[in-house]
Amino acid sequence: MIYSVKMIKKSSLTSINIKQIIREIKIQSFINHPNIVKLYHFMVDKEFIYLFLEPCLDGDLKQNVKESNGRIC
Questions:
Q1: pTM (predicted TM-score)
Q2: Are residues 25 and 12 in contact, defined by beta-carbon separation less than 8 angstroms?
Q3: Of 55, 56, 45, nearest to 7 (Cα)?
Q4: Cα 1–Cα 32–Cα 54 angle in degrees, nearest 5
Q5: Superfamily of segment(s) 4-67
Q6: CA–CA distance from 35 to each of 14, 45, 49, 54 (Å)?
Q7: Which end of the chain is more exposed for a tag (fewer CB within 10 A), N or C?
């Protein structure tokens, strides 16, 4: 299986950021919706937090919104 990986450098995080990331992991672990990127797994090492996500093959949201003149269908 192919994943997109979101790498978050731990040294750049504040305690508030860490709480937000934990909340993101908890929420995304349980959500199963076709319009929301699925979180398959996460991993932590000395330097980074890794989030293994469903790949978004159609580009990023910002570019898609720009190309559709601000409309999301």
A1: 0.74
A2: no
A3: 45
A4: 30
A5: Phosphorylase Kinase; domain 1 (3.30.200.20)
A6: 30, 30, 24, 11
A7: C
